[in-house]
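agent> Task received from the user: take the single chain below, predict its 3D structure, and emit structure tokens. No templates, no multimer pairing.
agent> Plan: (1) validate residues, (2) run structure prediction, (3) serialize to tokens, (4) report one or two observations.
agent> Step 1 OK, no nonstandard residues flagged.
tool_call: predict_structure(input=
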Amino acid sequence: MVELLVTTSIFVFITALLLTKYGNFNQSVLLTNLAYDIALTIRTAQTYGLSVQKSTGSATQFKYAYGVHFDGNNQSFIFFTDSDPDNGNKIYTNNDVKISTYNIKRGAKILGFCTSDSCGNAPENIDSVDISFLRPNPDAQICVDGTCGQSYLKIIVQAIDDSTRNIVIRRTGQVSVE
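)
tool_result: status=success, residues=178
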């Protein structure tokens, strides 16, 4: 009888430990997937910017920038194409074509942005970010609050358990998840 009680208590303890760790594991996987989804969307914008003429209609020149727009809404981001390439700003406006809007679910959110490598996980006070790509240059055009020319951007995403992942975009077009 004592052996049965000891075995049962060990089984209950291991099961309880597994169930408490499962929630953290699940949040970690969801957060990592979100970070890779954002990085993949930015990489898709880069691919479109290098290889697609225009999102609608016919065009004879490769002059349309493709990009990803983040604003104060920390629950979504927009994949867009610049509908007026002659204005030269490569920033998302209401006149641009929304290819798709991505909504972030399951309690995760975009915590913020950093423009320097030394900021850690403390986001800066940034309202909007645009990352765009224009043929023939694979380099990223990073625009923060309407001002272009940044050479580094870190997007910090956070899960409901306060764990974070970082997506780093460099001017050279490199996109990585940390």
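agent> Step 4: summary for the user.
The longest helix spans residues 2-51.
agent> Done.
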